[in-house]
User: Fold Transcriptional regulator, LacI family from Parageobacillus thermantarcticus.
Amino acid sequence: MKKVTMADVAKLANVSKSTVSQYLNKRYEYMSEETRKRIARAIEELGYQPNIIARSLKQKTTMTIGVIVFNILHMLTTQVLHAIEEACQERGFHVIVSNSDDDPEKERKYIEMLRAKQVDGLIIFPTGKNADVYQKMVEERFPLVFIDRMVPGVKADAILLDNQKAAALAVEYFAERGYKRIGVVAPPPVSHIIPRMERIEGFRQALAKKGLPIVDDYFITTEIPYIQNELARLFASGRLPEALFAINDLTLMEVLYFIKGNHIKIPDELAIISIDDVPFAHVYTPTLTTIAQPTFAMGKKAAERLFLQIAKKSEHQPQIFRFSPTFIERGSAKEKNVIRKREVT
Amino acid sequence: MKKVTMADVAKLANVSKSTVSQYLNKRYEYMSEETRKRIARAIEELGYQPNIIARSLKQKTTMTIGVIVFNILHMLTTQVLHAIEEACQERGFHVIVSNSDDDPEKERKYIEMLRAKQVDGLIIFPTGKNADVYQKMVEERFPLVFIDRMVPGVKADAILLDNQKAAALAVEYFAERGYKRIGVVAPPPVSHIIPRMERIEGFRQALAKKGLPIVDDYFITTEIPYIQNELARLFASGRLPEALFAINDLTLMEVLYFIKGNHIKIPDELAIISIDDVPFAHVYTPTLTTIAQPTFAMGKKAAERLFLQIAKKSEHQPQIFRFSPTFIERGSAKEKNVIRKREVT
DNA sequence: TTGTAAGCGTTATCAG
DNA sequence: CTGATAACGCTTACAA
Assistant:
């Protein structure tokens, strides 16, 4: 498959490459109707397709951005990706998606590769463990925005949920309905995963603020695969809380699985609120009360901030954006201690 | 932000660009220990990063493939994308993801753009409406594989579910358990969306084969937003079937929503089987009997076939791969007409 | 209004 | 073992 190049078109149309180039870049203002047509015909005839790689080399811009996610199967990821893709589409950008699998090594390698490929900017759901690499990028003024997680000390744009508020929303809702023994389910808090810390800490503080007991046993913070065990142990000992706050969709799934396996009734025996408005929340029985992240808005904002940086690399003031969660009241948490008839919610 | 190039490294190391190039491509066989070290040091010192764009221009290969999906929020898409990404990762390829939104125009534009960007191949979840464009690619021997849907007349690799079998699996399961009035829920059958046709037709044929009545009213084939209405109309008229086959995750959600709104009992009043093993199938009440697509295997296969084509463009025999669905028996369809105690499944 | 020629940062082909 | 030198396909001054 002989690639046809600009030179071929030029030859056929009897003009020079530069004229063809002008044509392609729609600068036909100073071009005779005549030549324009000849070029158009030549292009048509040869089935010419410009080679953007060559152009990129010259222009030093690829109209491509990279997105590195740490968990491509996470619901938040999918939705944010969707928003980013859409925003890019509008501006003629393309998106290279890479999955770091929450492995800092992989993440580092991807950043390097993507930059070698000359992407115009990077949106990262950071593992949090490559502060040096991130820092280098901001020093070089390479367009960068973090999303979902941020990295302390690295002065870059970050798009985050107001995690503390999300936790408070859950606790307050429970508290106002008479729940006292409230637990949280999360992966282990580790210092470089900020949202996790904020959600767990926010939960603790909200509890304190409401004057509710803080019981260590009710902090189920262990890796996803062990959550079942932990929950089972509590249950067996008869010390299960009355309400549970699941800090994301993955932990929610574990909680639901546990509940199902043990024939526990929601919300009567155990009330549930989770962050992330899972797609089946409204068809589940009972319907699930959740705290939604504005995923679409977040993705869009991330893209916008990136474009801003790309447009004027120099004086960009990095900023942290906290998005407010939305409380979606459904049926998995209700007034406590009220006898009601059995109903489908 | 002066980009440091190979020339800079060469100068600092006191060698020529070609030598540096050799070094970068790990051809140090014929290189003195001495120069190698000098180059390494120079690279280190300058923080040199190769520019892959330049290399691509020369080598005519970008180590990048494009994936065009028609619905980025569909569960199948997410999972297949994950598999593709992983396969690419292993071979050092990158993936540009684009969403055609099932709009042929957009799809066409994307194909063009991506090819202009010199991607080494394309994996497409086709809208089905751009036969001419697809055809041109196969004629040019441009690496291409279709997934999920295929395009009649276009001789390209296609990775598909055995849709007929999937439908038969559902019908047989229902039939063997005494269900007679079985319906299907799907978007409208249109000739260019093959899996839809195959699933609906497969359903019809399986019904015939089992000697079950084929009732027009039980073919609920309308756009997603109208499914509720359609279902409601049937329900109001008292002619709701005993069992429903949902042809994908999106239609399943509609069915579940309807059921929930009308307090219908699964499986006693209405049994359900769907294609796509939704993530909440095992925590739903009752648990959901589904027909899973081997999404991961399909994505992997798609990538493999594409790499095969990329490796030896010339003699590639296009092939259609039919993947067998897996029946996952859970609780949303049971023996019919048997009184059982109420149980949590 | 159009052509010439010099890059862009690599790789590849040959000499040396 | 190393170095010139010519591509790769396009853009962009600068001429004409």
